[in-house]
């Protein structure tokens, strides 16, 4: 079981593609928010009603480690991180080889910023079960955030070699290929991520950027539009849509897209820069 299937945005710095690929127009790569995992937090699973129901299960089965693990996952999804940690601690105390609980607890540690404890838990989960794909993906995200790109790539690769059906492995490996300029490989990975998680906007946005880098503007535009359709609050996708309009010379539509991105993320510099360009050009 995964706890918290979500981090928003894209922490990989894709602005390094700017000059060479877009003739001075900045690729919109959101760098200010944590990322790497697809989808959005399932608030329903973290609701007070669901947690209350799970607490009843715990009360009836106080020695069942899985009951604590499941409730801990729901608490994590609801943003109740300290309570989630307590449940994962109990699950591990009851079952010391509970590798899923170690991996879930690691993700909570990541979210509260304790990267050392997160790494220790991922390592322990992998030590117990060397074939547990979720732990490799989680640790890979931890490495990627720490700019340990090769270590991150190796973990995503390992998860894929284990025949994971988790879209995050392909999405995150695609991000690494993208920053290395290997856009055809990135597109393949983003496409696989889309097939595994068709309701996630991030791989559409990622694939669109690689299409854009290959000057396949129509494909890029279609992907940015789909990213917006799936998540209308994706400021990066709005900015990238604006960039396509700008490249086409439609400054009015570009300004509208950039303005929406800036409304959603007022400190997002690529949106502000784009709006400034098309406004000054008018």
Describe the protein in words:
With 282 residues, the chain is an all-alpha fold. The protein has a single domain, classed as Tetratricopeptide repeat domain (Serine Threonine Protein Phosphatase 5, Tetratricopeptide repeat, Alpha Horseshoe). 68% of the residues lie in helices and 0% in strands. The protein contains 15 helices and no strands. It has helices spanning 18-22, 48-60, 65-77, 81-94, 99-112, 115-128, 133-145, 149-161, 167-179, 183-196, 202-213, 217-230, 235-248, 251-264, 269-281. Helix 5 packs parallel to helix 7 (133-145) and helix 12 packs antiparallel against helix 13 (235-248). The longest helix has 14 residues, at 81-94. The protein is elongated and about 65 Å long. The model is unreliable at 1-43 (pLDDT under 50).
Question: Could you give the topology of this structure?
Answer:
Layout: H1 18-22, H2 48-60, H3 65-77, H4 81-94, H5 99-112, H6 115-128, H7 133-145, H8 149-161, H9 167-179, H10 183-196, H11 202-213, H12 217-230, H13 235-248, H14 251-264, H15 269-281
The chain-level structural class is mainly alpha
Oligomer description: single chain
Instruction: Determine the CATH superfamily.
Output: Tetratricopeptide repeat domain
**CATH second-level architecture:** Alpha Horseshoe
Strand content: under 5%
CATH domain fold name: Serine Threonine Protein Phosphatase 5, Tetratricopeptide repeat
Mean pLDDT: 86
Pick out the low-confidence regions: 1-43
What is the rounded distance between the termini? 52 Å
Report the helical percentage: 55-70%
Tally of discrete structural domains = 1
Element order: H for helix, E for strand: HHHHHHHHHHHHHHH
Shape: elongated
